[in-house]
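Sanity check

After download, print the first record. It should look like this:
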Amino acid sequence: MYKDVARAIDGIDIYPMIGVIIFFSVFMIMIINVYSAKKSNVAHWENLPLEDATDTTYSNSFTQNTIKNETEII
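Expected structure tokens:
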């Protein structure tokens, strides 16, 4: 029954192709992003789970403000 409804819609055959193109585009962008990443950034990302929260060497302003707010509360 549902197949007949979908077949009756004109131009519906383009939507699966659009989905494949979007998926492939996002996949290729991520592959390019991974291979073009700087080695220093990758080394930093590798150590993120092991770093202390007070280490602000690579942190952004949001992280620094959060740390300041937490110390003001204490």
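If your output differs, re-run the checksum step. Summary of this record's structure: The mean pLDDT is 77.
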